[in-house]
Amino acid sequence: MKNSKFLKIAVLSVFFVQMGVGTITPAIANIAAAFPTVPFTTLLLVSTLAVLMSVPATLISGRLAGSVVTYKTLLIIGMILFIGGGVAPYFMATSSFTAILIVRAIFGIGLGITVPLGAALIIAFFDGEERAKMMGFSNVVANVGGILFQMLGGIAATASWEYAFLIHGLGIITLILILFLPEPAKVPAQAAGEAKPKLPGSVFGFALAIFFIMALIYPMLVNMSTIIATTGMGGAAEAALVLTMFTVGGMLGGLIFAKVFAIFKKNSLALGLALLAVAMTSIGLGNSIIFMYIGTTLAGIGFAFIIPTVFMDLGAAVHPSQMPTASGIVMAALNIGGFCSAYMFAFLAGIMGMTENIKFPFYVSLIVFALAAVAYLIIKPQKDGVPQPE
């Protein structure tokens, strides 16, 4: 069953819900109108709290998966919390905002339990070129899921804000598929007489890199509508289309990742960083809407090369029994990077006197990404733990 179509579909279904946290983003204004006494910064917790709660859940899930608790059990628990916590606010329209935040926290925990297991399952079930293909397809499925959740959430919110939460019910598709997912063969942490392998330092190196990469990309996702409006390039519709191209780029990158990885191997990460540098240059220095389209598309492709490459390298660097833990650490770093991004750039802008320049984050990002691409080519990661294939 290892290479059966059903197995591939079931594993990829785990990635379908990874961007489910964006479902209610289009409904934020409607929710604000429904709770006029709640400060807007508190109101945003309806989205950000789920992300914050997913971080510890991701770390714990990665630690338990395959050793203390089976993958399937964790996935079922995660998806029940995802669906239950996600849909619950629909039935709480007359409840306090605090009650809604509590179930959003439960939703975040479910998301966090599920997130690190997809890549670990690909490493456990697939090898070689098939593994690279699945890593690429995982990015495509995640982006398709993100588009579907957010688009349907926006449509539902036009009727009433609470309807947007019902869209989380799409998680039932993943839940049904994982009920029939086989459990990967359990890999002992060490052979008889051998010391328990330590988690390689490269895991934390990759986690730190992903933290900064996400922090540097995030201003593009949250500031694009403001940039387009203040520079007279267009309005909300144009901003939505520009940001959609990030997702489209991610899908394109995922589709061609296996071929790219076959040619560039670990240097696929440097290629992704170089594309991000070009993307930030296009957005930061561009003065027309076409540069925004080019920038977000290239950013999506570059990011789609980086994430699968990191997990391919992790699969080669760690003992198979450590993959869920390694995956959890990296995914937690990604979410923390997105959360910390605004604070990091606000601090830098304050120091450099650039608080009024909305494109300041892109100037910083293009320089850092360009330097990182060159540095990665010059200073290759040390072979740490299990030998990495060239």
UniProtKB/TrEMBL annotation:
It holds the Pfam family MFS_1. It is found in: Cell membrane. Gene3D superfamilies: MFS general substrate transporter like domains. The chain crosses the membrane at residues 39-61, 73-93, 99-125, 137-157, 163-182, 203-221, 241-262, 300-318, 330-354, 360-379. It comes from the Bacteria. InterPro entries: MFS, MFS_dom, MFS_trans_sf. Residues 6-384 form the Major facilitator superfamily (MFS) profile domain. It is a multi-pass membrane protein. Keywords: Membrane, Transmembrane, Transmembrane helix, Transport. Its main location: membrane. The keyword rRNA-binding does not apply. The keyword Transport applies. PANTHER family: MAJOR FACILITATOR SUPERFAMILY MULTIDRUG TRANSPORTER MFSC. This is MFS transporter.
